[in-house]
Amino acid sequence: MSIKIDGKALAQELRVSLRERALEFKKTRGTEIGLAVVLVGEDPASQVYVRNKIKACEEVGIKSYSYHLPQDASREQVLSLIDELVAEENVHGILVQLPLPKHLNEQEILRHIPPKKDVDGFCAENVGNLAMNRETIVACTPFGVMKMLEKYGIDPKGKTAVVLGRSNIVGKPMAMLLLNADATVTVCHSKTENLQKVCASADILVVAIGKAKFVTADMVKEGAVVIDVGMDRDENGKLCGDVDFEAVEKKASYITPVPGGVGPMTITMLMYNTVLAAFRS
Ligand code: GUN
Question: Which of 3, 85, 105, 176 sits between 20 and 30 A of 9, alpha carbons compared?
């Protein structure tokens, strides 16, 4: 039987200390930490995420500035809003919720956010710094995973780590963080051959492919640490992850549940990055 990694509890613990940091900022700088959240369009999942981010800001004592542009917002409309937020001194972090509507060029829009205000850690400079193992703003989900490993005393040094998924938001920065922490890292994706064998070689398996219960027990080594970044629905519409939890928990040493694992950490790390960005401003 495995130990469940409690992301909810760790997120709560971190939020308490972030609240103190936010108060300290207000006392010393005479202004609140500010985070601008930009949502374009009506994607239902994005609306839920944005609502949760704003709620987290309230909890931590960060002032949120929320902008909702219509689905058919033009490139110029989005860019001019970002330019305004870049110029606004009280906005320390800018977040553009992804995915954007198809007619907008995601990369072009993200490039308008200066690295210092890029609290998602998505821009080329922040990603480049991460690749070079320099201090930077790190993407929230993989950053949260590293905090969870640390909290549970799991040191990636010398371990075989396998990351399933190669997205810019999770898979790639996750692989770089594990590499920076001295793990031996393999990144798997939809074209990987012998996936079962590669996954079963992992001491630490991080799964971020967005397919419900994709990782089965035969893909997991006895005693592995299994981190599930997925947020899916099973055949009955119930929330579940990318890992078949019931089967895999019998083999893993540590495992993150869904919900209550990685999810609560992601938004907390956004608060963490915003506090960092404010203090560095
Ligand atoms: N869409 C899904 N995850 C994220 C995230 O971490 N940040 C932003 N901006 N959009 C997302």
Answer: 176
